Structure formats: C-alpha cells, structure tokens
Amino acid sequence: MAKELKLMKGNEAIARAMIASGTDGYFGYPITPQSEVMETLMAEKPWETTGMVVLQAESELASINMVYGGAATGKKVATSSSSPGISLMQEGLTYLAGAEIPCVIMNAMRGGPGLGTIQPAQSDYFQSVKGGGHGDYQLYTIAPSSVQEMYDFVFDAWDIAFKYRNPVLILTDGAIGQCMEKCYTRDYIPRWTEEERRQHAPWGTWGKPATRSHNIITSLELESSRQEVFNQKLQAKYREMEEKEVRFEALNCEDADYIFVAYGTSARICMKSMELARAKGLKVGLLRLITLYPFPKKQIAELAKKVKGMLCVEMSAGQMIEDVKLAANCSIPIEHYGRFGGIIPSPEEVLEAMEKEIIK
Amino acid sequence: MTEELIIAGFGGQGVLSMGKILAYSGVMEDKEVSWMPSYGPEQRGGTSNVTVIISDERICSPIISKYDTAIVLNQQSLDKFENTVKPGGLLIYDPNGITHEPTRKDINIYKIAATEKAQEMGISKVFNMVVLGGFLKLKPIVGSEFIHKGLEKSLPARHHNLIPQNEEAIEIGKGLIEAVHTL
Fold first, then answer.
1. For position A201, what pLDDT does the model report?
2. What is the ipTM of this complex?
3. Domain holding B90: CATH number?
4. Are A260 and A313 in contact (CB under 8 A)?
5. Could you read off the pLDDT of B137-172 as tens digits, one per residue?
6. Chain B residues with CB-CB distance to A119 below 8 A
7. Which band of pLDDT confidence, cut at 50, 70 and 90, is reported for residue B42?
8. Does the pLDDT of residue A352 top 70, yes or no?
9. Which of B25, B54, B60 to mutate to probe the A interface, most A CBs <10 Å?
10. Got the DSSP string for A173-225?
11. Residue in B63, B64, B66, B152 to test binding to A, most A beta-carbons within 10 Å
12. How far is A160 from A291, CA to CA, in rounded Å?
C-alpha cells in the first residue's frame, strides 16, 4: 500500500482509504448503492495484511452496535450504509455521540422516503445535521464531491473523530460511490499499537491499570444536574468545531453577482452550470460546502453582503436551503432548485433555474 | 480538450468495460477522466450505459445530458440518445438490429457493423473493442500506446494474454467504420 495513481469507484476509495488509514475494524451490512465498500474490503482481505477486522453483521442495528463496542476500546472502527440502513442506525449514533465515541460512518444517500429507490439523492441532510437520533448532539458531517475526496476524507475523519471524541459522518450518494475517477492513494499508516492506542484514547475501556480509576463508556446519567454539565461540555465541543473545523470551496466567487450553493454531487453539477453561465457572460460562482456540520455560516453571511442572489441546489425537496437562509439572514433572494427520488438534475436545467428564479 | 461521450447498449455487450478501458487509457496519458455508469436494477440483456469524460482540465460534472459523442449499440439506445448529441457532434451506431435509422442532419453519423464482423471472425468477446477502434479512428483522443497501457491496467493479470487480440480488434474497427452522414 504505497502512493499510487489509480482509477477507482468512490465506494472502493472509501474501502481502500479505511485500510490505508490504519482502521482497526469495519462492521457493515450490504445495501445498494454502497455494497462495493464491503466487497472491496472482502477482496482485499486486510485481516491478512494489516490485521484489520472486516465483518458482515446480521443487520445495520448489529453493525452500529459492534462499532460502539469496538470503538469504546479506543480502536478505529467504521461502518457504511445507505439511507434506509442509516435510519436503522440512528439509535446507535445518538448513543455514540452521547458516550463521545470516535468512529466513522459513511452514508451513500439514495432516494427515499422508506425503501425508496437505489438511485442517488441528498434527502438525508436533515437527518445528518439536525440530529437524526434524539438529544442535543451533532455528527461532524463531511461531504465529498469526488472520488479523491472520498479517499482523503477517511483520513481526515479519523483526525477529527479522535481530536473531538466524536462520530464523523461521511455523507455522500450513489453517484459519487459508483463513479470512477482518478485517485492518488497514500502510504499505509500503520494501525496503532496498544501503546499508541492508550495515548490516543486514554478514556478507552482497554483495561484498568492500578494507576487510575475506571474508564466508563456510557451515555446514561440519571442525575440531571450532572447531565446538564455534560451537555454543556458537548455544546462547548461543538462550538469549538464550528470555530475551527469549517471547510468549503469557493469557486469564482470573487467577482460573482450570483452564486450556487451546493455540496457533493450537486456541487459537481453546479460546476458545469457555472461554466455554462460564464460562457454566456453571466457572473456566476459556486460555494461548495465540504462540511455540512459545522456549517459555513460566516462565509455565507459574508457572501450575502456581496452577491445579489443565491440558488441552493440539492437532490432533495429543499433541506440545506434552511441553513443557508438562516446564515444569510434572508437578506438577499435565496431559492431552492432540486430534483428527487433518484433523479439527478442536468447542468442545463440548473442554470435555467438560476436564470429564472434568481437572475430574472 | 474535453471529450464527453456516452456508450450505450445491452447489458453484456461490454459497454462498461469499453468505457473503463478508454478511461484507463486517459489516466495513462495523464488526462483527467470520469466514468459514470447507469447503475440500477440492471441485468444481462437489459440496457446499460456509461458516461466517460476525458479532459485536460478538472472535470466539472461526471453526470451530463449533452454529449460530444454517442456510441449506441441497440435500437433503444439510439432512440434514447440520438437527441442528446450536441450539434456538430458524433453519433456512432452498430446497424445490427436497427430498424429506425438515425435522422439528424446537424451531427456526424457513422456506422460500424461490429456485431456482424465479430461473429464472422469468431471474436464476439472483443466486439466492444471493434467499436472502440471505430471511435478512435474518428477521434484519436488517446494514443494507441496508452490504449495498450489502459488494457494492461483494466484487465486482470490472468487475462493479459488476451491483450493482442483486443488490440487486433481495435485495428479491425478502425477499418470497419463508415460514414452515413457528415457535415
């Protein structure tokens, strides 16, 4: 596993990055459009090389609770699924957040509600950044828009997860999962030794030495006053993430009169729409969101002072737009354009929506 | 240079692997590439298509609705994609099983009787490479040495003995393609 240039699917990139980033375990249950994650892991047999455990659980409920168990010991444990499977995992996710267990979860979104379709969608935004499970918690949510980012963000996810003791969600969709693009792979980062794990996860349940009291991993606290203190600590952690960990890409925003706001696959579509717009002499830019939580509030507020309007493009009925409008304080026209149920909008129709709804 | 193309046909015709070999060849020539399959509840005999983009620049969207080139290998695909070719673009089809010929006058149309030729020569497994050869004759967007490297990269090592046969099929395709309507 050395640095190499390869052509691979997004799902394959996630799997290869898990191995290369020194992940200790993966527990999953197959579901389209991300089954290639486990297929790649099974084909690569990392248990023979790095010692990484790969296990097909009996369900998504089992997967996420295996993640809880494994990650509670301070190991790097990951899972992946698609919308209906991620819905099943919500209880586990709020417990993981409540017990402050670092882990990585990938959701390759597909059209819903219910079993819906297997085609790409972005209709799990609310579920991802507004809770999903119960209680005041946040998942660090990062949205790749290329195969290279699918690969790189797994490495970034581990850094964030352990820095903040927080679950990280890689939010993507079937289009990026299935698309093949160039990907530069990295050198293998060896799995942590026992000693390293104890350093990185001093809170983990890896055995009690005589020198300290018990490490307890739980999200249960029956004493409300202590629960409130804990919640304040969680909120302080989230504020720190909001301060330090926002990521985005601003394309052609310097001179833009109008901008698209989008993430993931929609952002790629908007790049093309922007190119078409620029060819017509329209000063259009793109704010591509990379982190969805923490949300780039400040950057949107700044842009709202400069541009005349924003079009939020999402493969949903309009979810992210709520945060964009809040960030911009509704000071300029902000509209939504989206297709859903597994339909991907064309760059031409996105530009048409920009011209009709915003530029006028 | 940016070439946006769609290859469409029946599942099992090698549509996806043809796109993959082209994409890999682009990687070998240090170009930007994307390969986006139509994925869904597909099955052998159903329809299958793949969008391949090869460019000197960062690729915007891997999903597009207008193409520089459409390579269509059955009637359904011809019906679906004839109108998605950009004006002045290129349409290549295999006449096998085609009952309604393409009608557009604002694009270049070529046909390649690859199915017939491959059957006749007993090389039906490299049918897709015959078609690829026809396309490369008209648009040599990647050099033949890179196609060779692309074949090496995209075929598993146990099939590398078949590379000469694939390359031969590409050459046959180059000789087989014929103009139907040109601008």
1. 96
2. 0.90
3. 3.40.920.10
4. yes
5. 999 999 989 999 999 988 889 999 999 999 999 999
6. 40
7. low
8. yes
9. B60
10. EHHHHH-EEEEEE----PPPPHHHHHHH-TTS-S---TTS------S----HH
11. B63
12. 12
Q: Which two tokens stand for residue A202?
A: 């001093």
| CATH for the A4-195 domain, from 3.30.365.10, 2.60.40.10, 3.10.20.320, 3.40.50.970 | 3.40.50.970
Q: Which position has the token pair 């240079």?
A: B1
What pTM was estimated for this model as a whole?
0.95
Can you tell me the distance from the alpha carbon of A330 to that of A322, in angstroms, rounded to the nearest whole number? 10
**Which tokens belong to B68?**
């520089």
Could you read off the pLDDT of B103-147 as tens digits, one per residue? 999 999 999 999 999 999 888 889 999 999 999 999 999 998 999
Q: B6 phi and psi, to 5 degrees?
A: -125, 140
Q: Where are the domains of chain A?
A: 4-195, 248-359
For residues A11 and A177, is the Cβ–Cβ distance under 8 A?
A: yes
The distance from CA B109 to its chain's CA centroid, rounded to whole angstroms, is 14
DSSP of A52-97, one letter per residue?
-EEEE-SSHHHHHHHHHHHHTTT--EEEEE-HHHHHHTHHHHHHHH
**Residue given tokens 């078409």 in the structure block:** A276
Contact A140, A291 (CB under 8 A): yes
Which CATH number applies to A248-359?
Answer: 3.40.50.920
Contacts of B62 in chain A (CB under 8 A): 175, 179, 181, 268
Query: Containing domain of residue B133, as a range?
Result: 2-181
Residue B102: which residues within 8 A CB-CB, separation 6 or more?
B78, B82, B91, B93, B109, B180, B181
CA distance A181 to A179: 7
